[in-house]
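Re: that chain you flagged

S.,

Sorry for the slow reply, it's been a week of failed gels. I finally had a moment to sit down with the sequence you sent. For the record, here it is as I used it:
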Amino acid sequence: MGNLAHFDLTALIERHGLHHFVETGTGQGQGLLHAARFNFRTLRSCDIEPSLAHTVSRHIASDSRISVVTEQSPVFLRWACRLLPRDEPILFWLDAHFPGADYGIRGYGGEPDEGTRLPLPQELALIANLRPEGRDVILIDDLRIWLDAPFASGNLPADVRPFCPRKRDASFFAEKLGATHDVSFDYANEGYVTALPKEKVLAC
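Prediction finished late last night. Pasting the structure tokens below so you have them in one place:
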């Protein structure tokens, strides 16, 4: 599980004029609660596991900016991207994978459909298609799902690898986002991906 606090959100918000926070993979709400400390106009999150979404919803009921729904992340992102104005940049925190596995609800192979188990390629394609201006900031957790590298927490455990794509390949990050974003890898914790708008996009 990654940590949104790893990133300097103040600097990202100020530089890129971020107005909204959109998260896939609510989990126990750590990322959402951290983001709520900042002056986002809206904060939206989804989790495919109803028990997780319901528990977090109860804890954040007093903050009217926040909504948490039970939904598959591609469906949720399609809705969120169409709902939020395209001229108001979003901070995306993409952390949906292995539904419920980190919380003992299901095993890592408990979801038989790979697209549901590892929805990130679909998520990035949706963002690229529905937010083509490329002004959003995209932060992604668990890079080690997609490649081996000197991660601080070590590479992916052997018992989890069978539930990853047969060909683990991180090239799709640049393929999906490279036209509008500068993509970089960070090997802290389980690994992060940062996609920042290219300077020419910012100047538009």
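What I noticed first: The first strand starts at residue 20 and ends at 24.

Talk soon,
D.
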